[in-house]
Write a structure and sequence with these properties.
Layout lengths: L2 E6 L12 E6 L2 E5 L6 H9 L6 E5 L5 H19 L7 E5 L1 H14 L8 E5 L5 E4 L2 E7 L8 E9 L6 E7 L10 H4 L4 E5 L7 H4 L9 H10 L4 E5 L6 H12 L6 E3 L6 E3 L2
Parallel strand pairs: 3-4, 4-5, 5-6, 10-11, 11-12, 12-13
Antiparallel strand pairs: 1-2, 1-14, 2-3, 7-8, 8-9, 9-10
Helix pairs in contact: 2-3, 6-7
The chain binds zinc ion.
Length: 271
């Protein structure tokens, strides 16, 4: 059983929820994707009931504050657990070289203890592949117009008996779909897409100026790329109470698959 827990669902400047980051978990362990912008990651992990010891890796999409700064707290926490002998095995951080260098230097500068040598930094780029918790990750460049950013297509099997069913999940980071990503996203069972705001509110939140898009756009892409389930995140937080209903309604104008707009700490069963 593989599941995804949305630790944070908001964009960089939200105040009513945490910045976008999530955990993918199965019987083998857990992988954190981005870490949000601060030590809120500690409470989100705790409230989600995800043990630090189960975490084997962190994947960083890009080096913006709302995605990478929480990574310093993650490494601080894991470093302490390793020192106390409470974290077995290795912990690997995957990301673009620039982001990893920033994170490593920040830890060196800010943390009291040097990082344990069981914490590894592995630079990845377009087309690279790696495997963690029996999930195969294929990295792709999302062709950001702001700063280099990567997404991934993750593939894993469902169940423990043959014939195994293959499940795929595509994560496009926090920017809109770019045509060059077609082969990584097309026909994915699950698509994680940013949706900065509702299309009807675009004059208020101005998503395109910020290189983001709307729930309506996410629905169009999900339909065009024939995915089965769409998960929207990285949203504004002006009306969290009605966010799910409203975003779902807009995306459903063009997409007839399953639509999720998870709240912080909500878990989705992937397969
Ligand atoms: Zn962001």
């Amino acid at each position: 059983m593989t599941k995804l827990t949305m630790l944070g669902s908001g964009h960089a400047m939200v105040t009513k929820c945490y910045n976008t980051c999530f955990v993918i978990q199965n019987e083998e362990g857990a992988v954190l994707v981005d870490a949000g912008g601060g030590n809120g990651i500690l409470s989100q992990m705790e409230q989600a009931g995800i043990s630090w010891e189960s975490l084997q890796a962190m994947f960083l999409t890009h080096a913006h504050t709302d995605h990478i700064l929480g990574g310093i707290w993650v490494l601080r926490k894991i470093n302490v657990l390793m020192k106390q002998g409470k974290f077995q095995g290795n912990f690997t951080v995957y990301g673009l070289q620039a982001g990893l260098s920033f994170l490593e230097k920040s830890c060196e500068f800010l943390l009291k203890d040097p990082l344990n040598d069981k914490i590894h930094f592995v630079a990845v780029e377009n087309e690279d592949e790696f495997s963690v918790i029996k999930i195969q990750f294929r990295v792709f460049d999302i062709h950001s117009t702001k700063m280099p950013q990567i997404g991934f297509r993750a593939e894993f099997t469902k169940g423990w008996k043959e014939p195994f069913e293959k499940i795929s999940l595509a994560c496009m980071g926090d920017e809109p779909y770019h045509e060059t990503c077609l082969k990584y996203v097309e026909n994915a069972d699950w698509l994680l897409s940013e949706a900065f705001c509702l299309s009807k509110d675009k004059d208020i939140f101005k998503p395109y100026e910020k290189h983001h898009s709307t729930a309506l756009d996410a629905g169009k892409i999900a339909h065009k790329l024939k995915v089965s389930h769409l998960i929207m995140y990285h949203t504004e937080d002006s009306d969290l109470e009605n966010r799910e209903k409203n975003y779902r309604k807009e995306a459903a104008k063009n997409f007839d698959g399953d639509i999720y707009v998870p709240r912080d700490l909500e878990t989705i069963l992937l397969g």
